[in-house]
Amino acid sequence: MDLNSNIKDILLHDETIFQDIEVFNADYIPENFTLRNGQIQEMALSIRPVLHGGKPINNLILGPPATGKTTAIKKLFEIIEFNYSNKIVCVHINCQLHSTKFDIFSQIYKKIFNHTPPETGIPFARLYNSIMSELERNDKSLIVAVDDINHLFSKNVISEVFYDILRAYESYPTVKTGIFAVLSDVKFQHVLDKNVGSIFNANEIHFNPYNYEEIGQILKERIKLGFYPTVISDDLVDEIVDYTYNMGDLRLGIDLLRMSGNNAEIRASRQISDEDVKRAMKTAENKTLDYILQGLSDREKHMIWFINNLGEKNLTSGKLYEEYNMKYPISYSTYNRLINKLEFLRLLDTTYTGSGKKGNSRYVTLRFNKEQINECIEDEITI
Fold first, then answer.
1. Are 28 and 170 spatial neighbours (Cβ–Cβ below 8 Å)?
2. How many C-beta atoms lie closer than 10 Å to residue 87's C-beta?
């Protein structure tokens, strides 16, 4: 068989082990999302005042990557749009893709008018007026979810965006607006201008990491929906659950299921083998690190790079601060926030040594090996 015929067979072959391959896509919103019902209900309560003529309550959505924050918001917005589209406009914005004020408000405009504004030649004031006037004319409220807001921290874009959304009522008295700010961080308010911080005044909703049983439940649900029966054995499922839990990223587990299925189909097999899973794991080794690094600031990436290249065993937090501060001056409070965030994101672990003042000295250990970190981060260091 020539190459052309072989490729054609691969692309058109109608036998598949996937019942619904979209179940393994990053943007898939599951019908069953009960593990985050508490957080979804809390967010819904924040929007409830709008239905009675009041203002929505702003929310700060906090939690490590891959804990269901974005999916929970999209699920809630889906429900609101189905039931209350005549009263509320919900807009979800990925700040990794849209990180300027004009770009963010262009996405709001697109949601309201079903088309994007001209990319050039339109001043921001006109864009803003079109949005708010349309909301006022239709007596609708606006809820904006700004996801991965750390991408707005540079040049303090975040304060400008928050101010323009939350102060809309000053020029458009009947327009009620609210913000759901999504962040994988433990500290936030210090990046907002004082005036903006006072009007944002958000309710915090926390998304804790999934535990072992929850990861297993989610992956098994995807398997049930995405694969035909008997495609993957219970032993291999347990192996993927173990791997996902140890790596601390649910997205990785979902990717592993999809890649393992693809590997089986390449072999023209109707079942996933141990070798298919191992190949998928090898391919995915750097994916978790890439996912997390995308959301870090230059300073945070630099700290990971510095620890990695320091190459010390039994590195204590105090020793790390001395070494880092000697070359790159930094206050201890800023340093401590950095370490806490990197631990929060499961990029590193800290364990108490039992020594130091009050026994609070900690060892600092990276969760990824040196080669992985250098491959993912070396070219991005700018400090």
1. no
2. 13
| 104 is a domain residue | yes
Residues 88 and 153 in one domain: yes
Q: Is residue 222 part of a domain?
A: no
Query: What's the pLDDT tens digit per position in 327-374?
Result: 999 998 889 888 888 887 778 888 866 665 544 678 899 988 888 888
Q: What is the 3-state secondary structure (H, E, C) of 302-341?
A: HHHHHHHHHCCCCCEHHHHHHHHHHHCCCCHHHHHHHHHH
Q: Which candidate, 135, 150, 153, places its Cα nearest to that of 94?
A: 150
Pairing of strands 88-94, 141-147: parallel
User: Can you tell me the distance from the alpha carbon of 87 to that of 231, in angstroms, rounded to the nearest whole number?
Assistant: 46
Q: Domain boundary residue among 158, 177, 206? A: 206
Annotated binding-site residue? 69: yes
Looking at residue 365, which CATH number applies to its domain?
1.10.10.10
Give the span between the Cα atoms of 169 and 204, in whole angstroms.
Answer: 23
Report how far residue 372's alpha carbon sits from residue 77's, in angstroms, rounded to the nearest whole number.
37
One domain for residues 286 and 301: no
Amino acid (one-letter) located at 260: S
Q: Provide the number of structural domains found in the chain.
A: 3
Question: 70: annotated binding-site residue?
Answer: yes
14/40 same-domain check:
no
> Are the beta carbons of 268 and 247 closer than 8 angstroms?
no
Is 71 annotated in some ligand binding site?
A: yes
pLDDT tens per residue across span 133-176: 999 999 999 999 999 887 787 667 889 999 999 999 999 999 99
pTM: 0.76
Domain holding 48, by residue range, is 34-206
End residue of a domain, out of 249, 273, 290: 290
| Phi-psi label, residue 169: left if phi above 0, alpha if psi -120 to 50, beta otherwise | alpha
